[in-house]
Amino acid sequence: MPVQISPSVLASDFANLQSEIEMLNASACDYIHVDIMDGVFVPNISFGIPVTEAMHKHAQKPLDVHLMIVNPDNYLEAFAKAGASIISVHVEACNHLHRSLQAIKALGCKAGIAVNPHTPISSFEEVIQDIDLVCIMSVNPGFGGQKFIENTYDKVRRLKDLILRKNAQTLIEIDGGVNLVNAPLLMEAGADVLVAGSFVFNSSNPIKTIQELKSL
To answer: Enzyme class, one word (predicted)?
Structure first.
């Protein structure tokens, strides 16, 4: 299956968010990645439910919503109503991960999890068959434009092995520092979805950059 691209609007021009979403609609991207930050789970604040809802009004691609927040269960229904197609919660923020996954699916969304660089694959091995997407953080969450963590390749390989052993249908998503140099190596390791923020939105031609990633 060709790699799927999920540009992160965290790196977009917030003052022209509608035009940025319309640009992504016209591109070859598969999803629109929406990073929700609360200033508690991560040391940054991005945007929340109203802005997600506003993006959904203009988006023609599914919203891939990444909750970098504490107590995510309290907000699952609100983000589903705001237009999320995928909702990913952090393993580190969920005391009852299986319950959270089931709650997301009950809302009609695909259930994803996200894992920080230090979090081992073993932390969610028992529920891998209930997970639609695993978002591996290849930078420390909270800010865009960070340097890619090289250990990510090995982590992707180990996760791919787990998925195959368990006969799961889980997709592997990589979030942080993705570019045209490391993208082919990530795909070779087993990645299915690439999140690209600064690399797309800071380029002179974001639509061309997305196409180049898509064509790898």
So the answer is: isomerase
